[in-house]
Design brief:
Helix content is 40%, strand content 15%. It has 12 helices and 10 strands. It has a 5-stranded mixed β-sheet with strand order 3-2-1-4-5, sandwiched between helices. A 5-stranded mixed β-sheet has the order 8-7-6-9-10, with helices on both faces. A hairpin with a 4-residue loop joins strand 6 and strand 7. Bound molecules: 5'-O-[(R)-(carboxyoxy)(hydroxy)phosphoryl]adenosine and zinc ion. 5'-O-[(R)-(carboxyoxy)(hydroxy)phosphoryl]adenosine binds next to helix 5 and helix 6. Zinc ion binds next to helix 4.
Length: 404
Amino acid sequence: MKILGIETSCDETAASVVQNGTKILSNVVHSQIDLHAAYGGVVPEIAARSHIETILPVIHEATKNTGYDAIAVTHTPGLNGSLLIGTLTARTLTLLTGKPLYPTHHIKSHIYANWLSEKSFPQFPILSLVISGGHTQLIYMKSHNNFEIIGTTLDDAVGEAFDKVAKILGLPYPGGPSIAAAASKANGHQQGILNSREKTPAGGSFPGEESCLADAHSPYSLPIPKVAGLDFSFSGLKTATLRAVQKAVGVPISTPSTELAALLTDEQRHNFAASFQATAIQILLEKLALAIQTYHPNSIVLGGGVSANKELRKRVSEVDFWRIKPSAAGENHRSAVKRTSGQDEIFAARNVSKDQPLKLYFPEPKFCGDNAAMVASAAYFAIKAGQKPTDPLILDISPHSTIS
Ligand code: KG4
Ligand code: ZN
């Protein structure tokens, strides 16, 4: 079955034809980054106007050599105007072609980006960490199209925090890639925070207990929030970074965030980027580790724009390593487990993994951000699991909705 996926939930206009959920026949993404960069974030009206201008050429390009049997479109969640353009286009196309129409949830699609490029596919039960500009969620899946949200952000999404902190530091939009690039130029001290903390008993922390990523040697000590269970919070980290920047450049806390970038040296900028990135990753990893221990999945699946982050991919691979080969873990890894778990419990489940290996999946970087191939894949597996087509005359959008 060839499915035409259409994606316009935010600032990418995308269309793709995917066969049987995994084989990409075409994949076209028109990015609006240049249009929004001047504003430091997505301007909804500009996004909707650009979608109108590009949606038909993008769909034409994606379908001209492939044909398709069904249409899938992102109808929730996202920006109102952006969702409307894709959804109305899909409804019209459905009426014109008579092909079945399947509405798709954007977060589900980010998970299914992992079925696009792997030769082996994730095995159920699956634990997904979806991290994007709009969402930070842990989702447990017992089977296809069966989703249980087990953790979510209580305030900002992690990608939103990357974008806002980048703005404070004077780094270009989108903030995720520019923070990652700046962090890689840090002078080493900040990048070493995690290691130095591992060796410092006072530096240890665990959600709900004392919380601070950096140790006493770090000028940029940023907090890990005290949030119970598997939920996340990133707005405190954003504010803590703002306060630390104000302190570092010697201005009062009433100084607007827009005035700070000009006062930072490049060295400070890079070090703040590294400190922020390391702390954000640590928050994600501690929750992911707790979810692994609680839910005992067979596979871990990452998705969403932030899952392109190289440092995160490196660190989460170490988590996987601890769990499936505990005896092979080096001294540093073992002390890190003790420190982040506060007492080894988080990784107690690793013993299970001797008979039940845990596999880790990331989408290819080009499928981490918004694209339509993931929409077509999600729709295919939902159809296989029993989803019925929707009446094109009544399909509506929903800017906010959770997976069900
Ligand atoms: O999934 P996505 O393209 O759109 C949404 O559904 O939100 O995610 C966009 C988010 C932005 O916040 C962007 O800054 C972040 O993903 N992002 C990254 C990286 N690349 C994109 N964050 C951290 N590191 C990256 N390399
Ligand atoms: Zn997205």
